[in-house]
Each structure stands twice: as structure tokens, then as C-alpha cells.
Write a structure and sequence with these properties.
single chain; 159 residues; alpha+beta; Rossmann fold; 2 domains; four-stranded antiparallel beta sheet; 5 helices; 20% strand; globular
Amino acid sequence: MTMVEADALSKFYGEFAAVQNVTFSVPAGQVCAFLGPNGAGKSTTMKMLTGFLSPTSGSAKIGGFETQSNRLEAAELLGYLPENGPLYPEMTPQSFLRYVGKARMMSSGDLSERMEYVAEQCDLGDVWGKSIGKLSRGYRQRVAFAQPFFQYPTVDCGN
């Protein structure tokens, strides 16, 4: 099954081509990365793939769902962490991830079990009770990256 698909995806701002005719597919279960110089269109492409930005032409699909017409269905299948992930600096990793789990309506038992697992997998034990705003950039990224664990139980932090 193809999980991510871009077909002739383009985004123009007037005559400026931010992304032009990008076509690729990523099979389910495969890990991939976008690499390229600044201004190559990586962020614009990701915004179109996630449905946050409408393409000028072409199409983007996640799990077979067109991101423009079925954004919610596509979003349920996609975990996307931008460079500066959305975090609440006044919260601790523990309180933030508990909030994420509750927002995803996890039961108390599942939430406790999942939080213990996430803390271990993402090596957050040393900062579990510290304010996110006072953490290093690397630890903040780990906290942001831990969010998919509450939706995708097989994700790991590479440990």
C-alpha cells in the first residue's frame, strides 16, 4: 500500500515556482526524509502533503485520501513534526504528554503505560519534570517527537 503520494504537485506564488511537478510515493512502513538546500521547496511540499496549503496543481494523498478534499481522514494517518514543533514551554514533558494522551481520549491505564514507555524510548527521564521552555533544543525536539507514540504505538526514537 502507498502511504504518501505526490503527483505532479506544484505551488506557484505569481510567477515564482516554490514547488514544480514533484512526484513521488512512499510505501507504508517505509521511513523517508526530505533533503535539499534552503529554498528548495521542502517545507512547501510538506504543507501541501499535510493539507495546510493548497497546491496550484497536482495532488497529494495520504493513505489514499486526497489531502485537500479529505484532510481529516488523511491527518489521522499522518504524523508531521515541523522543525519547531508545537510545544507549551510552561509545561513539563510529563504534563504535556499526559495532555496529548487525554486529548486522544486514552484511558487512564493505557495513558500511564504509554507515558512510561515514551519516557523510556525517547530518553526523557532526566527532564521529565523540568519546564519544556528550559530544555535544550534537542530535548524539546524529543518531547515533540514523542507525540506520535500516542497515536502510532510502533514508532520509536531510534534508541
